[in-house]
Q: What sequence folds into this?
């Protein structure tokens, strides 16, 4: 082994190995985020299915707002259908 890798190069290989491992771990963590979509066969933009009156938060601070918003969107859709029938 000393013929191919001199003793002085062991720290360099160690540091480069740790850097490559850390970079790989960092990329893995980035790839698991909520913005990344790995499903190539399904819908690749699932955020387009969210309507304006859908609450995506885990904790609802103001539930009255979302109820009013839901009712407003429902009224808008009803009015649009009435206009379309004319």
A:
């Amino acid at each position: 082994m000393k013929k191919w890798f001199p003793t002085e190069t062991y720290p360099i290989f160690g540091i480069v190995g740790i850097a490559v491992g850390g970079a790989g771990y960092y990329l893995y963590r980035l790839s698991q985020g909520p913005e990344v979509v790995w499903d190539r066969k399904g819908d690749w933009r699932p955020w387009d299915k969210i309507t304006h009156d859908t609450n995506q938060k885990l904790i609802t601070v103001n539930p009255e707002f979302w109820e009013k918003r839901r009712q407003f969107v429902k009224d808008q859709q009803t009015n649009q259908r009435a206009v379309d029938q004319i």
Observations:
- The chain has two helices and no strands.
